[in-house]
Amino acid sequence: MASETSSAAKRARPLSPHLQVYKPQITSVLSISHRATGVALAAGTLLLAAWIVAAAMGPGAHARVAAFAGSWLGQLMLLGWSVALFYHLLNGIRHLFWDSGRGFDLATMEKSGKAVVAGTVVLTALAWLVAKAG
């Protein structure tokens, strides 16, 4: 009898809320994005290391890596890596302010989140414009 009561109680308990229950908010989306860009930066750093190794191996290896970096796929990967770099940097600065106890009210959190996104777009565009000009 006790097992019947406990199993009925288990069925009646509410499930823990998760991502499918909550409406996405800017802070939650930016938090998840911060983690994703950290992973992207780690992967991009491996490609950067491969480029350095290729440069050390000689002109032939370096030319192959440079050809890939100049391809549409290489350019897309570099664009993604630069977006991840600037986003992670700016959102990390935002987190430093939070660590000091500043910026926790909802209005400031929303403004700083929008500033991170806008800053990411601006810095990425500037970096690519400077790279194309040089």
Looking at this protein, list some descriptive labels.
mainly alpha; 134 residues; extended; 3 helical TM bundles of succinate and fumarate reductases
Helix content: over 70%
Q: If you compute it from the alpha carbons, what radius of gyration comes out, rounded to the nearest whole angstrom?
A: 23 Å
Tally of helical runs: 5
The outline comes out as extended
Assigned CATH architecture: Up-down Bundle
CATH superfamily: Fumarate reductase/succinate dehydrogenase, transmembrane subunit
* DSSP, total strands: 0
Give the overall average pLDDT: 90
Low-confidence stretches: none
The quaternary organization reads as single chain
Biggest β-sheet strands, sense, barrel: none
Q: What is CATH's topology name?
A: 3 helical TM bundles of succinate and fumarate reductases
The separation of the N and C termini measures 79 Å
What does the model show?
There is one protein chain. The model has no long low-confidence stretch (mean pLDDT 90). The chain is mainly alpha-helical and 134 residues long. It has a single domain (26-133), classed as 3 helical TM bundles of succinate and fumarate reductases. It has helices at residues 2-12, 26-57, 59-70, 72-99, 106-133. The protein contains five helices and no strands.
